[in-house]
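Quick note —
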Amino acid sequence: MIGVYDSGVGGLAVLREIRRLLPAADIVYLADQANVPYGERPLPEIRILALAAVRRLVDLGADTVVVACNTATAAALAELRQAFPAVEIVGMEPAVKPAAATTRNGRIAVLATEATFAAARFEDLVGRYAADAEVIAHPCPGWAAAVEEDWPEAAGDRVAEHLAPLIASGVDTVVLACTHYSFLARPIADAMGPSVTVVDPVDAVARHAARIAPAPGSGRTTYLTTGDPERLAGQVLRLLGLEVTAGRA
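Predicted structure written out below.
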């Protein structure tokens, strides 16, 4: 069974792609919505939350877990792999390497939470893969929380205003380093313009998870949340167009 974990609904973008690749897989999605958003929490607190969420998925039978949250990955991936050595754990990380291969002028912007930028993992990625590029860390406070509500339907003006400094700086590549931002990919692309490439690692992470996932099952998807199950069901309908029943984690 595949477990997919996020602080909220951003990981639904990863779930959608995994389900497309593996229609017969059994998947459990766990949203830690009692604690969303993670982006402004201290890293030690995020590690505790991540360990608890992944333990819940493992207890439910997951032998592959996708940490579909850049912030949780940055804060806790090493600790998760140490705590659950028998489980394949796939993380999200800022797609700095493909962005460095894509940029034409060497100017890259990374959109993420403050916590993702605070973790040593981000600086390590930049040092390894983009040392010769100008990498701008551009926090987007409030965006993840907004996607938890209804922002994607009316995001254009607010996104464009927040990204105006990046447009002025001349970046030609933008990395989406929070899965919540996948649901804002269109207004982000519209704001940046056709000459800017938007890099979203969701598809690549889903393909990796599909390669290492267990044998096909019944094709069932279970939705769990530490918050309000009815709210999660409504969010799945809004973001994925699926009518589901959610339970409490």
